[in-house]
Structures are given as C-alpha cells and as structure tokens.
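Why does this matter for the project? Reviewers at the last site visit asked to see concrete outputs rather than summary tables. In response, this paragraph embeds two records directly. Each consists of the residue sequence and, immediately after it, the corresponding structure tokens. Nothing has been edited or filtered.
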Amino acid sequence: MSAEEMYQQLKTKLHDVVPDVELRIKAGLAEEINRLKKERHAVILGHNYMEPALFHSIPDYVGDSLELSRVAAKTEADIIVFCGVKFMAETAKILNPTKTVLIPSLKAGCSLAESITAEDVRQLRAKFPGVPVVTYVNTYADVKAESDICCTSGNAKAVVESLKSDTIIFLPDEYLAGNVARETGKHIIFPSKNPNFASTELDYQMIGWHGRCEVHEKFTVQDIQNVREQFPDVLILAHPECSPAVVAASDYSGSTTAMIKYVEQTKAPRYLLLTECSMGDNIMAAHPEKDMLRLCSVRCPHMNQITLEQTRDALLKTQYVTEVPEEIRLRAYTAVERMIQIGGVGKKD
C-alpha cells in the first residue's frame, strides 16, 4: 500500500479524530514501517491503548494482553515488534524465546509493574506459606517467576476459581483484587498497608497488594454521577483496574477486549469508557455509528511513548531488544502458560 493509499484509508477512519496534516505525515511513516516489516520478516502487535493512527495502520494483530500473548506464542516471524509496554514485550519473549522481541521505546513502563518486586513476592510467600500466588500480567518477568499463575483483567476471576483454594495471594493491583474478591465472595486484606500485620489476626480469603494503575485510579464515582446527570441515557463501561466503587457504579466492567465487544454487540444511545482514552478513539474510528462520550483525556504516559517514528526506528536498527534471563524465563513461562490455557472471556471479565 502506497503512502497515498494509506492516507486515504486513515482519513476514512480518523478524519474526526486526527488532524489531516498529521494523518499525511503518519501515513508516510506507516507505509515505510509496513515495507520494513516485510523485509525483516517481522510481526507487529498493537495493544488496544495505542494511539489511533498507529492502531489503525501497522499492527498485524491488535488486542489485549491475553490475545497478544497467544499470538506471540505462536508466531513464526523472525522479529516481534510489541507496540505496548515493557511487561508485554517481556511476556512475548517468555513465550517465544528464539524470536527477537523489540519494544519501540525504553520509556514504556507501567506503574503497576513498578509497584512490586520479586523480593516482595518472596516475603509474602514466607508470611503466608502454602498460599498460591496469582500475579496480574501487568508485572515484570522476575515477579511472574515467583508466581504460581498469571492472569489478565479478562480472566482473573476464572484463574482464581481454577485454583480451588480457600485463600489466594493476588498481586499487585489493589483495585482489580478488590473487584475479583467481590465477584468471588472472598474477604480481602492488604498487609502491605500495615507492616506490623499478623496473619493470625483476621479472617480472610484473599491477600492483596497496594498497587494501582495511574490511569484507572483517576476515575471517580463523582465523575460517573456528573456524566449521568448530563447524559442520563449513557451506558458506562469501566475497566476492572478502576476502584470497586467505580465498577459498582458503572453498567458493565470488563477487559479492553470485552469492552470493545460489548460496545459492538449492544445498542445504546451513547457510551462512555472509563479506561485509557485512546481506546475510545479507536472504537469511534472503527464504529462511527456509535456515539462515544469523552470524560477527559486520561492518557497512559507509558503507552504514549510508543510512536510510529520509534516503531520505524526499532525495525531499521533492531533497536531495544527485550531479553529475559533463562532461569527467570523458564519459571515465568509456567505461570504465563497456565494463564493462557485458562483463557476465560465472559460478561464480567
């Protein structure tokens, strides 16, 4: 596809989202990237939070962490370019170690992944011996290696229930853990908030951690009330990384893929997504017949580091290769593979 053809394709989808002058520049970059992708025998994976011009032009596959993990595990491409954040690129390397995995920017981190260390997990295991550890996929490889199984926001409930254990350690997202605890009927405690906590003091079925997504923690119940006051017919969808109070005040809660499917399969006067704002733009571009409200521009500063320019440079220079030490990779692989095998996408995922 030529740069002009790419421009026309992007203009059709994004004329109400991205300025025309920007579309012309990005169409040229996308054409160059797609050519390099073929020359390098590369596959490009794009998370649902990628900015619209990138999301709708260069990825071979788009989706959430679970979907893209499955693709990364099976691809026969020589190079995997992960347009997402660091823990996602690490997961691709964990699942397909013989491939070269590139991340376009070294600044694409994650507040959740930074909130916990492998040593933290080891200390929790020592404090709660024999209790299985469920770790959210939004963590780094060394933390996954200390875990029994990983989960995504799309299968967290299914993963917890699969363990058939009276007590679970669920790390590191405080809000996701709270939402899963509510769905599974478990009483949750957060010993990380109380260093002097003694495990014999309380009755509990889930042990959480004090980590939060810096995007999703910004949404409040007051935000929902304000929007409903102005748009009483709005259907509000919240990501499970939002607080339990926000999730309870919303009409639906699900992973990014689940939210996309819910919007596609329902007919509401208007929708509001409480998640990273680029995803709303991407849905608007794909479904112009849907009326999508914008609460505010809550952009993930880490996802925002991934640009078309940096993706091109990654392919040109084989830049920012993601590596995972083999001893850590093998242990993390077990936890990630168990997550993939469970899958689990439903109404409350």
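We now turn to the second protein, recorded in exactly the same manner.
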Amino acid sequence: MGTLKPIRPSAAEPVELQARAMDNLRYIRRTMERAGSFTAVPGVGGIFMGATAMAAAWIASSRPSATWWFSVWFAEAILALLIGSVAAACKSADARIPLFSAPGRKFMTGFVPALAAGALITLVLFRAGQFSLMPGVWLLLYGASVVSGGAASVRIIPLMGACFMAAGAAALFTPAGWRNALLAGGFGGIHILFGVIISVKYGG
C-alpha cells in the first residue's frame, strides 16, 4: 500500500516569502526616509523666537552699555535655541517622525557648521570690542545655516535663510546705532513672517 503525501506544500515557503516581503518593506521605508524632507522646522516656534527677539531689542536698548547689549542678545540666542529645539521636537512627535531621522540628520549637518563659525567669530569680535559688526555677522551666518540646513527641508526654508543673509549683508554697512533695529527686524520680523507662513502652509 503506497504512502499518502500532502497535497499542500510545506509552510516553509510562505514563511520565507513573508520574510522577504518584510525585508523589502524595510528597504523601501529606509529609502523613502533618506529621500524625504525635514518637515519639523517649527512655524509656531519661529513666531515665539521672533517675539523674544523683539523683546530683547527693547531690553537691550534700555541701557547705553555695549556689554549690557551683548549680554541681552547672548541670552536671547540661548533662549531662541531652546525654543526652536523644543518646538521642533514637539512637531516631530505630533507627526510621529523621529527628530533625528535621515532628513533630520541632513538638516543638522547643514545647519550646525555655519552656526558654530558664527559663535567663534562672535568670541573674536567680543575680545576685540567690535560690537558694531556683530549684528551683520549674526544675521549673515545664521542665514547661511538656514540655507544649508534648508537644503534637506521644504523649499521655503532656504528662502527664509536667504532673507536673513540679505539682512546681515545690509547690517554690515549700516551705522552702529541701528544694531537693535536691525536685529529686531531680522531675528524678530523675519522669524515671525516665515513662522506664520510655515505654520499655515506646513502645520505647527
């Protein structure tokens, strides 16, 4: 009497197909993540950064001391960095996208170098007592950071960076007495304007 063999194939093949499908999905996900844009640039955070810059300009103008002026804007830079970081983290969490995904890392790779250069040049200018050059340098190099980082983000971000660079270039050729107005218009006005656009068009 012959032995009976199962008509259905063994379960090994479906399991192997499922594993291959999961590998393909993971590959597609990684590819899409690398090709994607960093969309966690915060619109609302930009508005708050602009508002604190306006407040800093008012506070810095309350005393004629250059050291007081520098201290106020140094504190504003730290505050703005905290606001931007927290707002970007919240926007990423709402979108369920890791902040340091591949596009996020590309953004930071472009954003940080010019910002670090600005910090170093600020130290040199402070030691030399060249406070009048600081607004132009800050706006110019911050704009360069945004343009470079914005290459990994949505199209409006490099445009915002270009506006900061234009404001910085103009500030380098204006009288020293205009520095608070220039910083208020740059870090205040540009942040608020583009913050509103980003918030409306891209959410958050």
